[in-house]
Amino acid sequence: MIERLDPRRVLAIRKAGYLLFMLPPALMPISWWLGGATGLPDLMAWYPLLWIFVLIPLLDYAIGRDTANPDEVSETPVLQRQVYFRLLTLLAVPIQVVLLIWACWIFVHGEMGFWGRLGWLVSMGVVSGINAINVAHELIHRHGRLEPWAGGVLLSLVGYGGFKVEHVRGHHVHVSTPEDASSARYGQSIYEFLPHAWKWNFLNAWRLEAERLHRRGLPALHWRNELIWWYGLSLGIAATMTWAFGWLGLLFFAGQGFVAFTELEIINYIEHYGLHRRRLADGRFERTTHQHSWNSSYMVTNLFLFQLQRHSDHHAHPARRYQVLRHFDDSPQLPGGYAAMMLLALVPSLWRRVMNPRVEAYYRDAPEQLVAASQ
């Protein structure tokens, strides 16, 4: 449906539509209110997941793909400079802080049973993955101090501060190569991928930061090691939650963080599954282009994810802000938005049935590359 509109009109709709980023956080108080109104708090604790994994994908398919791109000469420079787009992402920080404290209070003191508390924790974790990690992903790529530090705070709120270092200095350097733990191999299941990604990305962040400090003649355990600050902030938040809410507060903070960064790694799995950069004659890998990441231009999801699904252009040009990321027809295209693809990834047999033919089509002219893609 959206593809029929004039591209200029689509850009105007998109500018206002980015306010949809507030929808996932708003689902938590809506869920709590519905629990009281219906007398079914345990069931309504799962309500945010209905929206995110059922209704949003349906809206994606109903509204369709947004393939409009801003004009590189007349529109992109203007959009890049507009403060409005920066304020939206920075607003995620106070929203996440307030939501985390309030949701923890409900988790501890709300009238919910075991299944209600479990649903509340999982729902908050999924929302944190969207509002904290996804927005942090946009912020840590920016220059200056304010936005990268805001991204670090958001990551600390889910206990995944290492992502700030590893993603920019590790993943973006080695994406779609065997050296990147966040790039899934052809045929690899999500359950094989996740433990390796959790472990390697944590360790690699510390290695990269130690190397940076070593080049400055400083030891790894130095106050300038930013991971000490981000993980220290996470520990401070955990201690505060424990002091304010007891062991259930600590459980809630740790649990929602685990769900959030697991959601992130599942999305990493989706974004790069089976794609790889070819090794050149000199032993180096070819330059990253918009053909080395899976792209999805379904409009609704892209609005509340700040265009994260235009991942192909993001990896080719990491400095581009979300509002000017482009759709390319020749990028590998996912058959659905991220929420739909996450559910598919959780069932490896279905995932391979849908995605393996697409990877094979990508390498149709060079079938020998499928071997490299699985290594």
Description of the molecule:
With 375 residues, this protein is mainly α. It has one domain (2-373). The chain is built from 18 helices and no strands. It has helices spanning 7-17, 23-38, 41-44, 47-63, 76-81, 83-90, 92-109, 114-139, 146-156, 162-174, 190-215, 226-245, 247-272, 299-304, 311-316, 338-345, 348-362, 369-373. The protein is globular. The relative contact order is 0.13. The mean pLDDT is 93.
Summarize the structure.
This protein is mostly helical. It has 18 helices and no strands.
User: Which residues form runs of ≥5 with pLDDT under 50?
Assistant: none
Per the principal axes of the C-alpha atoms, what is the gross shape? globular
End-to-end distance: 40 Å
Report the mean per-residue pLDDT as an integer: 93
- Percent of residues in beta strands: under 5%
Total strand segments: 0
Report the oligomer: single chain
Our count of domains comes out at 1
Element-by-element helix/strand order: HHHHHHHHHHHHHHHHHH
Report the helical percentage.
Answer: 55-70%
- Rg over CA atoms, rounded to whole Å, is 21 Å
Number of helices: 18
Biggest sheet overview: none
Per-chain topology:
Blueprint: H1 7-17, H2 23-38, H3 41-44, H4 47-63, H5 76-81, H6 83-90, H7 92-109, H8 114-139, H9 146-156, H10 162-174, H11 190-215, H12 226-245, H13 247-272, H14 299-304, H15 311-316, H16 338-345, H17 348-362, H18 369-373
Helix pairs in contact: 2-4, 2-7, 2-8, 4-16, 7-8, 7-9, 7-13, 8-9, 8-13, 9-12, 10-11, 11-13, 12-13, 13-16
